[in-house]
C-alpha cells in the first residue's frame, strides 16, 4: 500500500510506517503547488496530510484511488465529511496529544496580552526603553477574574485548569453539551453564549470549527464584551472577524487580544492589528513542541497502519464508514 506524505514529519511516524512494510512517498520539495499535490494524491492509496489541503467532493472525484486519509492535525474543518462518507473514505486525526501544548500557548497569550509583553519587548529591541512612567502602557492582573471558554473539550479543559491553579480564576463555559468533568473538578459553570461574552474577563476559543460559525466573534459580539476583557483564539481564525476585532480594540470595546490563528491565515504583515500595544499574535504554533509533534506523527501513522491491516482507525472522525463496508 502506498502512503503519500506531503511534508516530512518526525521520524517516529515514518519509521512506524516503514516497519509496517508500507511504501512511503515524500516529495523532496515540501512546498507543493495545488497541482503537484493533486498529482501525488491521484497515484496513492492513502494520504498522511500535513496542512490545510481541502478534501471535498471535487477532490474525491479527482482522486478515486484514495482509500483513506490520516490528518496530521486534530482539526478537520478542511474535510467535507459527508463527501468522505459517500466515497467510503475514513478520515483520521490526532486528538489529545497536543492538548497540553496548545493550551500552553493560550495561557501564554493570555499573560502576554495582559502585560503587553509583545509591545514592551519591541520597545527594548528598538532601544526605546524610556524613563520610568507610572502611567504608561499598564497591564492588568488576572487573579480571581473570570475565564470564559468557548468549546470546553480537552484543550479548553487544560487551559481552564492552568488558569485556575495559577490565578484562581473562575471558570464559565459554553458548549453544545455539559462537561461534567469540568464542572466536578474545576467548578466550571455552564452558561449561554450571551452570558459567556458578557461575563468573561478573558474569553478563550477552543471549539472545533464548522462553517456555520464563520465570523461568530464579530462586531455585535465584541460590543457586548466587557471593555476590560481579553479575547484569545488558538482554535481557528475563521471564528473571528479580523477587521471587527481590530475596530473593537482601537475603540476600546475590548481591552486586548491574543491570537495563534488569524483570519486570513497567514495574515498580511500590513494588518494594522499588529501595530497595537494590546495584541500578541503568533504564527499558529499551538502544537509546535517536540512532544506534541512526535505524538501527532505516532497517531497519524497508527491510523494508516490500522487501515492497511483492514482494521478501524483508532482515531477516526467518521467511524461510520467502517460499519458501512
UniProtKB/TrEMBL annotation:
Keyword NAD: yes
Annotated EC: 1.1.1.79, 1.1.1.81
GO CC entries: cytosol
Family: Belongs to the D-isomer specific 2-hydroxyacid dehydrogenase family. GhrB subfamily.
Domain spans labelled D-isomer specific 2-hydroxyacid dehydrogenase NAD-binding: 109-286
Lineage of producing organism: Bacteria, Pseudomonadati, Bacteroidota, Flavobacteriia, Flavobacteriales
InterPro entries per UniProt: D-isomer_2-hydroxyacid_DH, D-isomer_2_OHA_DH_cat_dom, D-isomer_DH_CS1, D-isomer_DH_NAD-bd, NAD(P)-bd_dom_sf
Organism: Chryseobacterium piperi
Domain D-isomer specific 2-hydroxyacid dehydrogenase catalytic: 4-318
GO-annotated molecular function: glyoxylate reductase (NADPH) activity; hydroxypyruvate reductase [NAD(P)H] activity; NAD binding
Identification of the protein by name: Glyoxylate/hydroxypyruvate reductase B
Catalytic activity: (R)-glycerate + NADP(+) = 3-hydroxypyruvate + NADPH + H(+); glycolate + NADP(+) = glyoxylate + NADPH + H(+); (R)-glycerate + NAD(+) = 3-hydroxypyruvate + NADH + H(+)
EC primary class: oxidoreductase
Record's keyword terms, sorted: NAD, Oxidoreductase
Amino acid at each position: 500500500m502506498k502512503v503519500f506524505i506531503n511534508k516530512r514529519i518526525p521520524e517516529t511516524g515514518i519509521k512506524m510506517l516503514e516497519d509496517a512494510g508500507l511504501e512511503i512517498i515524500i516529495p523532496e520539495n515540501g512546498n507543493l503547488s495545488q497541482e503537484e499535490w493533486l498529482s501525488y494524491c491521484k497515484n496513492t492509496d492513502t494520504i498522511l496530510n500535513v496542512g490545510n489541503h481541502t478534501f471535498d467532493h471535487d477532490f474525491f472525484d479527482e482522486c478515486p484511488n484514495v482509500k483513506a486519509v490520516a490528518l496530521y492535525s486534530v482539526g478537520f474543518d478542511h474535510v467535507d465529511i459527508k463527501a468522505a462518507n459517500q466515497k467510503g473514505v475514513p478520515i483520521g486525526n490526532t486528538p489529545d496529544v497536543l492538548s497540553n501544548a496548545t493550551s500552553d500557548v493560550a495561557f501564554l497569550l493570555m499573560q502576554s496580552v495582559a502585560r503587553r509583553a509583545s509591545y514592551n519587548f519591541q520597545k527594548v529591541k528598538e532601544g526605546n526603553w524610556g524613563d520610568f512612567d507610572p502611567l504608561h502602557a499598564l497591564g492588568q492582573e488576572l487573579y480571581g477574574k473570570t475565564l470564559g471558554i468557548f468549546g470546553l473539550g480537552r484543550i479548553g479543559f487544560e487551559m481552564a485548569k492552568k488558569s485556575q491553579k495559577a490565578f484562581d480564576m473562575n471558570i464559565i463555559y459554553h458548549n453544545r453539551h455539559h462537561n461534567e468533568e469540568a464542572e466536578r473538578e474545576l467548578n466550571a459553570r455552564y452558561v449561554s453564549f450571551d452570558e459567556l461574552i458578557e461575563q468573561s474577563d478573558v474569553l478563550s476559543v477552543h471549539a472545533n470549527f464548522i462553517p456555520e460559525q464563520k465570523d461568530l466573534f464579530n462586531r455585535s459580539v465584541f460590543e457586548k464584551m466587557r471593555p476590560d476583557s481579553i479575547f484569545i483564539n488558538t482554535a481557528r481564525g475563521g471564528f473571528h472577524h479580523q477587521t471587527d476585532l481590530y475596530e473593537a480594540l482601537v475603540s476600546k470595546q475590548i481591552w486586548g487580544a491574543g491570537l495563534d490563528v488569524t483570519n486570513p491565515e497567514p495574515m498580511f504583515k500590513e494588518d494594522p492589528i499588529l501595530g497595537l500595544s494590546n495584541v500578541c499574535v503568533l504564527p499558529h504554533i499551538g502544537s509546535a513542541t517536540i512532544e506534541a509533534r512526535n505524538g501527532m506523527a505516532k497517531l497519524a501513522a497508527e491510523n494508516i497502519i490500522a487501515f492497511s491491516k483492514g482494521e478501524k482507525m483508532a482515531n477516526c472522525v467518521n467511524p461510520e464508514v467502517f460499519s458501512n463496508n
